[in-house]
Each structure stands twice: as structure tokens, then as C-alpha cells.
Specification:
The chain contains five helices and 18 strands. It is globular.
Length: 223
């Protein structure tokens, strides 16, 4: 192999993603049907994942002690960064040693509730909860809690709309969750009378009866 050809071969080889396979037993907990794309950088022992979750390509979970809890049906899209810990400046401690030895770190767990979509390239910062059914738009930086079924975008992320109407959320809850798991009507009414009152409803897609039948079979199979 010539020198130039060898040089390009080495560069190409360095740029290839290094896939790391995470064993099930390495996670804090992991449910059935959960899919982890193997070129993500994770700290699995600090991750607690329910059934039927997808973590797509290139997700970076940066953690020393901070934990990540994700509930069923949620998807973390490509290139997201999840950080449940922060470096707190300390007098007499340079960032080099603070980073290397985690001196003065502050850890706050991150919670992602059921059926959330975390858009590509989003950043989730310590201590936040993403409420059930919420959508985080691509490239958003989430610094505070996100209410259920809201759509947030931007840096920092702000609510721009509601995913479904009140009646659609009630139908969605009945379709996906047992009665004991559903959000109460009072809780939802309070949200729509306060937080969601001035907000538009996002567009929705109607699915075919065939697709509905398929989903019912899948959900019944889980029980």
C-alpha cells in the first residue's frame, strides 16, 4: 500500500464510528423491547429504562453519579446530549482537577416520562422532568421541567404549542394506558385552563383503521 493510500486509509478508519455493545446486565435496569443503538456513548449503570424505548444513534449520556430514568414508549433521537451532573466552580479548584476527579460536582437526576420524543441534537440539563407525551424540538436546550403533552423548542426551550386537544389527549390516554395509569381529567383540565390556555394545538395525523388494529394488537400483547 502506497504512503498516500495508507494515509487516507488511516484517516477513514479513524472516522468510522466505534460501536460499543452494552450488555443488558450493565444497565441499572432495562425493560423488554428497548432498543439501544450501539454507537451511543452511555453510562449504563446510571440508566433506568422501562419497556419499549428507543435510543437512536450518537446519543451522549454524560454522567458520573447522576441518573437517567426513561419510561415506556419514549424515543431519544440522534445526537442528543443528556447531562444529569454539573461542575460547580470552587475556590482553589481548577476545572482540570474538578473534571478529572469530579470535585464539587452537583448531581440531579433526569426523568423522561412515557411517550416522549426528544428531537435530534437536543440537550437535557440536570434535574429536569419531561412530562408524558411531550415533544422536544430538534436542537433545543431544556433547562426546566416540560409539562405533559406540550411541544417545546429553542434555547432555552419554551412551550410553543400543545400536542393534542383536550379530547384527543383523553382518547390517547385511553388507547395507551390502563385506567390506573391515566392522567386524571382534573389534572388535564387544570393544564388547559392555565398553562395551555393561550397556546395553539399542533397538527395531528389520522391513522388508518388497519394501523389502529395493528397497534391494539401490539398493546394487548404487552399486557
Amino acid at each position: 500500500m502506497g504512503k498516500i493510500k495508507k494515509f487516507f486509509y488511516q484517516i477513514k478508519n479513524r472516522l468510522k464510528p466505534r460501536n460499543k455493545k452494552y450488555r443488558k446486565e450493565s444497565f441499572g435496569s432495562i425493560g423488554n423491547g428497548t432498543i439501544i443503538n450501539q454507537n451511543s456513548k452511555l453510562v449504563p449503570q446510571n440508566m433506568y429504562l422501562e419497556d419499549n424505548i428507543i435510543i437512536q444513534n450518537g446519543v451522549n449520556f454524560i454522567s458520573f453519579r447522576g441518573r437517567l430514568f426513561i419510561k415506556k414508549y419514549s424515543v431519544i433521537s440522534s445526537g442528543c446530549i443528556i447531562v444529569p451532573s454539573r461542575h460547580v466552580p470552587s475556590v482553589g479548584v481548577p476545572f482540570y482537577y474538578a473534571t478529572k476527579y469530579h470535585i464539587g460536582d452537583s448531581d440531579s437526576d433526569i426523568h423522561i416520562e412515557e411517550d416522549c420524543w426528544i428531537g435530534a441534537g437536543s440537550i437535557l440539563l440536570p434535574g429536569i422532568t419531561i412530562g408524558r407525551g411531550a415533544i422536544v424540538g430538534a436542537g433545543s436546550v431544556v433547562t426546566k421541567n416540560v409539562p405533559p403533552y406540550s411541544v417545546v423548542v429553542g434555547t432555552p426551550a419554551k412551550i410553543i404549542s400543545v400536542k393534542f386537544s383536550f379530547n384527543d389527549i383523553v382518547s390517547h390516554e385511553k388507547f395507551l394506558y390502563k385506567e390506573t395509569e391515566r392522567l386524571s381529567l382534573k389534572f388535564l383540565k387544570d393544564l388547559f385552563n392555565t398553562t395551555y390556555k393561550p397556546l395553539p394545538i399542533s397538527n395531528k395525523t389520522e391513522i388508518s383503521e388497519q394501523e389502529k388494529c395493528f397497534l391494539r394488537n401490539m398493546l394487548n400483547h404487552e399486557e
